[in-house]
Structures are given as C-alpha cells and as structure tokens.
Amino acid sequence: MISYTQLLADMARAIVEHPDDVNVTEEEKEDEIVLTLSVSEGDMGMVIGKHGNIARAIRTVVKAAGKLDDKKITVDIK
Q1: Count of C-beta atoms within a 10 Å radius of residue 26
Q2: How many CB atoms lie within 10 A of CB 65?
Q3: Residue pLDDT, tens place only, 54-77
Q4: Among 19, 25, 60, 71, who pairs with 66 as Cys (CB 3.0-4.6 Å)?
Q5: How far is CA 30 from CA 3, 33, 61, 72, 78, in A?
C-alpha cells in the first residue's frame, strides 16, 4: 500500500524553498481520504503555480496513486 501522506509531502518538499515547513495531515472519512497540505506562506505560490497548474498536477498524481488501491483521495492546500 502506498503512503499517500509521504507521496504528497515528498512532492511538495521538492518544489518549495522551505521544505522543513511542509506538513501533511490525513483524515479518513467514509469513502475517501482527505489530505491537507500546508506550507509556509512564502511557498504557497510555488505550490499553486501559474493558474493553479502545479496544484492541479499534484492532485492528479495523488488521485492516480489512490486509484491503485481503489481509494478516493482529495487534496486540500492551505
């Protein structure tokens, strides 16, 4: 089984300037897993990207990983 929390944290740490400030929390609900990514305020633009392209790509990769285990995964960025 894939650690979705670790996957998301590793991707975020690779693109931010302050990787020590990356924090991912996981909340399991009835039929889905909600991952909340928080980064330092100065790194928020890097995680979101122009027109939200980076955020969309991160969500796509994590959702694709969830499909391997038949899990629905939602990524919130704060």
Answers
A1: 13
A2: 16
A3: 999 999 999 999 999 899 999 999
A4: 71
A5: 18, 8, 22, 10, 23
